[in-house]
Amino acid sequence: MQRSPDPLGSCTECGTSLFDVDVLVAYETDDEREYYAECPDCRTVVHPR
Ligand SMILES: [Zn+2]
Q1: What's the CA-to-centroid distance between 46 and ligand 1, angstroms?
Q2: pLDDT at 48 over 90
Q3: How would you list the strands of the sheet with 45-46, edge to edge?
Q4: Based on the number of CB atoms within 10 Å of its own CB, is 46 exposed (0-12), middle (13-18) or buried (19 or more)?
Q5: pLDDT digits over 33-42, tens only?
Q6: Per-residue pLDDT reduced to its tens digit, 8-28
Q7: What is the domain partition of the chain in residue ranges?
Q8: How remote is the CA of residue 8 from the centroid of ligand 1, in Å?
């Protein structure tokens, strides 16, 4: 399991960067890893991009 300081993506609601610690669910698709994360700022569960 790789740990990276880089953000996974940004909140689609407010643009806050989302990190490993914010991830609720991670799952694999055909060729990439997808995440659902709770934004620490606006508390919305988003699909970071
Ligand atoms: Zn947010």
Answers
A1: 8
A2: no
A3: 23-28, 33-38, 45-46
A4: buried
A5: 888 999 999 9
A6: 899 999 999 999 999 999 999
A7: 7-31
A8: 13
